[in-house]
Structure formats: C-alpha cells, structure tokens
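Input (structure):
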C-alpha cells in the first residue's frame, strides 16, 4: 500500500513536491491511521479511504512544514507558492478531507460535545 499512498500524496501535494520528504511522511501517516482503526476494523475494510486519507495527511504535513520563500524569480520566470497562511489553509482542508474519509472506520479523537449550549 505504501507505493499507492506515495503516488496519491505526490498528486495531492502538487507539482514540485519533495518525494524524499514525502516518503517518510506517507509511512508515518499510514501508521497513524492504522493505529486509530476501531477494534475489529482492518485496513482492507477501509478500501480506498485509507490510502487516500494517508496521502492527504502526508501532503498536509508537507504543506504545513514548508518554509522558505513564498515566491521567487529567475530571469523571466516567476513562481508564487502562496503565503504561509495559504499553505496552512490548504493543509487544514487536506486534514479535514482525510478525517471525513476515515470517519466510519476510526475511533473519534478530541473532545466532542453534542447538545451542549453556550
């Protein structure tokens, strides 16, 4: 499954993604999702949701950790990677998509309160 996750993560991260950094991020994301599976649920039960969620998580981790210049020019070529806030929003959207994909298969994390006013 690792190569499938990496291929999806490269697509989600976009052109110019650092494969060297993305590979361990994919492996870590896969392990994290597997650790959150509800009792009795296997990776196979998740179908394509697991590789997609792991890929989105790895791409989000890559986007969130990107530093350096947001834009640069070389001769007549100019590249604008977006601001840090843009990358943070993109990372958050990828994380939310991963959570939605895996929601039927994993234990809930964090604090959930229903019917609480105020």
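Output (sequence):
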């Amino acid at each position: 499954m690792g190569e499938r996750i990496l291929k999806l993560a490269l697509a989600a991260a976009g052109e110019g993604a650092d494969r060297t950094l993305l590979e361990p991020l994919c492996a870590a994301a896969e392990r994290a999702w597997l650790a959150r599976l509800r009792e009795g649920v296997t990776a196979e039960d998740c179908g394509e949701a697991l590789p997609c969620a792991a890929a989105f998580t790895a791409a989000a981790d890559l986007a969130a950790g990107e530093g350096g210049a947001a834009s640069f020019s070389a001769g007549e070529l100019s590249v604008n990677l977006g601001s840090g806030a843009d990358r943070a929003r993109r990372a958050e959207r990828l994380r939310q998509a991963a959570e939605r994909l895996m929601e039927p298969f994993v234990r809930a994390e964090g604090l959930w309160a229903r019917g609480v006013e105020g």
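Notes: The chain is about 55% helix and 5% strand. Residues 39 and 107 are 9 Å apart (CA to CA).
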